[in-house]
């Protein structure tokens, strides 16, 4: 008689929890292949995709997908930290530009525009943002901090670019400090765009690799479905008192959702 594999109740609110669950399912599938090998010639399913070689190939593909996902997450964390480092001083820099416009007695229109853009840059939250990562601990700390603000990077880029246009049009804006010169402000704007684009690009890569990993483990003929079919076949060729029967029966797989999936075990 078949029953569902035992499950732990998963919560998928954090990416690192998903990775842990993926790894547990991969480890359980490895044990399942070991049980097939222990049966030797007795394990001879008709379906070629249930042969040990095919199962090992799918296991390897799932391992590669998980490792690539982890590597990309590390790259994303690095890109996020670099972006936050570049964006954090922008609010203070905007203040300095505004004070310089006031000092040189720029036109009221230019000063008004600069005040507006500076206010929006401050409202973005980037100057207060802690280095952001996709790790659970960092995100949980931010969630529990009532002062935490979700930074709006595109808003900063937009208003800093408009602030740059304002000072470029102002004939009296001729600062002595290097960091306030138009050429340096242009370089800073390019850096902001580059750092933000880098994060967006790696986020897309991570999204695609998570889909690939999910498909390899939970999709059509993924590890979970294969485990179901392998367990059913083993149930037909082993006795309930046997060691291999008990080994397979003890394996635990975790479904993608909280709802139980009909992945079969023995007993």
- Strand order, biggest sheet? 1-2
* Total strand segments: 2
Instruction: Count helical runs.
Output: 9
Residue-averaged pLDDT, rounded? Answer: 85
Helix percent reads 55-70%
Number of domains: 2
What's the end-to-end separation, in Å?
5 Å
Radius of gyration: 28 Å
What is the topological layout?
Elements: E1 2-4, H1 15-39, H2 52-87, H3 90-103, H4 108-123, H5 136-144, H6 153-169, H7 182-218, H8 223-237, H9 243-250, E2 264-266
Antiparallel strand pairs: 1-2
Can you tell me about this structure?
The chain is mainly alpha-helical and 267 residues long. It folds into two domains: 2-74 and 212-266; 87-193, no CATH class. The protein is built from nine helices and two strands, in the order βαααααααααβ. The chain has helices spanning 15-39, 52-87, 90-103, 108-123, 136-144, 153-169, 182-218, 223-237, 243-250, and strands at residues 2-4, 264-266. Strands 1-2 form a two-stranded antiparallel sheet. Mean pLDDT is 85; it is low at 1-13 and 258-267.
């Amino acid at each position: 008689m078949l029953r569902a594999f035992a499950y732990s109740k998963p919560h998928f609110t954090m990416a690192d929890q998903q990775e842990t669950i993926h790894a547990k399912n991969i480890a359980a599938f490895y044990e399942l292949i070991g049980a097939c090998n222990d049966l030797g010639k007795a394990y001879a399913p008709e379906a070629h995709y249930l042969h040990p070689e095919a199962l090992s190939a799918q296991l390897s593909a799932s391992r590669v997908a998980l490792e690539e996902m982890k590597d990309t997450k590390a790259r994303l964390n690095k890109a996020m930290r670099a972006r936050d480092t570049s964006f954090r001083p922008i609010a203070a820099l905007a203040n300095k530009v505004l004070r310089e416009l006031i000092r040189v007695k720029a036109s009221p229109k230019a000063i008004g525009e600069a005040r507006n853009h500076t206010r929006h840059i401050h409202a973005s939250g980037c100057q207060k943002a802690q280095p952001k990562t996709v790790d659970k601990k960092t995100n949980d700390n931010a969630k529990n901090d009532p002062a935490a603000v979700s930074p709006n990077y595109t808003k900063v880029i937009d208003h800093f670019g408009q602030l740059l246009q304002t000072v470029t049009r102002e004939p009296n804006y001729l600062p002595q400090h290097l960091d306030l010169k138009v050429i340096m402000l242009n370089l800073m704007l390019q850096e902001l765009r580059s750092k933000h684009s880098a994060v967006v690009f790696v986020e897309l890569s991570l999204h695609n690799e998570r889909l690939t990993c999910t498909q390899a483990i939970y999709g059509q003929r993924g590890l979970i479905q294969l485990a179901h079919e392998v367990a059913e076949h083993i149930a037909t060729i082993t006795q309930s008192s046997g060691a291999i029967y008990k080994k397979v029966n003890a394996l635990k797989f975790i479904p993608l959702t909280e709802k139980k999936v009909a992945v079969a075990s023995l007993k």
